[in-house]
Design goal:
Blueprint: E1 2-8, E2 11-18, E3 21-29, H1 30-55, E4 60-65, H2 66-70, H3 73-77, E5 110-117, H4 135-155, E6 159-161, H5 173-179, E7 184-185, E8 191-192, E9 200-207, H6 228-232, H7 263-281, H8 292-295
Antiparallel strand pairs: 1-2, 2-3, 4-5, 5-9, 6-9, 7-8
Bound molecules: cobalamin (B12) and iron/sulfur cluster (SF4) (2 copies).
One iron/sulfur cluster binds at residues 233-235, 237-238, 266, 269, 290, 292-293.
Length: 301
């Protein structure tokens, strides 16, 4: 068998020759061929970016499309949810201008999402200490710093750093991770990954290149689960549907899938965790935020 390429005007015909029989397999225009070649190159670049992140220490890495993130569940619902000024927001920061919410660089086309495993045996990774963050987050920042340098220097792709907080121009990291194929949103309202369950922390980087997304993927660990995550919650934050979601039909794209995750109730626990750390060991003690719904999840153990 041989493959012959015959150039006819601006089309290329690919023939397969079986003995004396000649079959016209496909007809591509030059533009299509160039497009296909470009897609292959971008897929290859995507692979290299992911490999770079993993080599630098990320447990998981994937690529999502910025347009898809623009219409993701959290993006669409966030401004309808009403005010929330609890832990995880910096709305009280006077230096903030309102338009930093969703104010992403116009040149950003794709987004690299990395995950770092935070297993039960390494709980310290998730403790908020005097340096204003967690050891795990500092590791993620470091991994991303090196990965960013290598993407820019070796692959010649411009990148943009993004903030952790959405009010400061950050993205919804769980949505980005789902779109990058790292896992799905479980009934605990967290990103659940196949190999590490929900016990991962995330970070992202904008890429100024349209790279083939690596997700979403078909994965639903909650379907046959006894839903341990909701039963252990000390604040019963995943028991009743939140009022704000009453008018929205049941959908897989609601928090905790059916709108039962109540961030105000969860935040009560977070505030308790802050005061407990102060009470027990003084103002500079690390804050150990609740992780019960993560640790109860059997996936990835
Ligand atoms: C603010 C915040 C909080 C607040 C408010 C939480 C909230 N969900 O609103 C508080 C302090 C309560 C909180 C609690 C926790 N948080 Co928090 N939090 C954040 C932060 C900074 C922003 C999240 C946000 O505002 N979301 C907005 C709302 C609209 O989204 P949502 O309620 O989460 O629900 C959306 C998704 O589920 C999504 N969705 C649902 N289905 C589907 C389907 C598809 C296909 C898609 C694409 C999306 C999607 O749409 C929902 C909206 O409808 C992120 C970091 C970041 N930049 O993303 C970390 C983050 C989400 N938190 C994280 C963690 C770990 C926690 C805690 C375990 C506490 C801890 N020890 O750190 C708990 C977990 C609570 C829980 N069961 O969800 C991790 C999650 C990691 C993971 N594996 O999922 C993140 C990503 C930070 C990180 N370091 O990696 N958090
Ligand atoms: S405990 Fe079960 S229901 Fe809850 S997130 Fe994990 S797999 Fe899903
Ligand atoms: S982090 Fe704790 S309080 Fe918040 S939903 Fe999970 S188990 Fe409940």
């Amino acid at each position: 068998m041989a493959i012959v390429l015959a150039d006819v005007a601006d089309t290329i015909r690919i023939f397969e020759i079986f003995g004396t029989q000649v079959l016209c397999k496909n007809v591509y225009s030059m533009a299509e061929l160039k497009h296909n070649a470009r897609s292959i190159t971008l897929m290859e670049i995507g692979k290299q970016i992911i490999e770079t992140a993993i080599k630098n220490g990320a447990t998981l890495a994937g690529i999502a499309n910025v347009k898809a993130l623009n219409t993701s569940a959290s993006h669409l619902i966030y401004t309808q949810l009403g005010n929330y000024s609890g832990v995880g927001t910096i709305k009280d920061d006077d230096t903030l201008t309102a338009d930093q919410l969703f104010n992403w660089p116009e040149t950003a086309r794709s987004i690299l999402v990395i995950g770092l495993s935070h297993p039960r045996g390494l709980q310290k990774l998730d403790w908020w200490d005097g340096s204003g963050g967690t050891p795990g987050n500092r590791l993620l920042i470091d991994i991303m710093k090196h990965t960013r340098q290598q993407i820019e220097n070796n692959l010649k792709i411009n990148t943009n750093k993004l903030h952790y907080y959405v009010e400061k121009g950050g993205v919804f990291l769980k949505d980005a991770a789902v779109l990058a194929g790292l896992g799905c949103i479980g009934k605990n309202n967290m990103l659940v990954t196949r190999d590490f369950g929900p016990r991962v922390r995330l970070r992202a980087l904008f890429l100024e290149a349209e790279i083939e997304p690596t997700g979403p993927v078909r994965f639903d660990p909650c379907a046959d689960c006894k839903v341990y995550c909701r039963r252990v919650c000390p604040e019963k934050a995943m028991v009743e549907k939140v009022l704000a979601f009453e008018s929205i039909e049941d959908s897989l794209d609601l928090p905790a899938r059916d709108g039962t995750y109540d961030r105000e109730l969860c935040n009560i626990r977070m505030e308790k965790d802050i005061s407990e750390s102060k009470k027990n060991t003084g103002t500079h003690a690390p804050i150990k935020y609740c992780r019960k719904c993560e640790f109860a999840c059997p996936i990835g153990k």
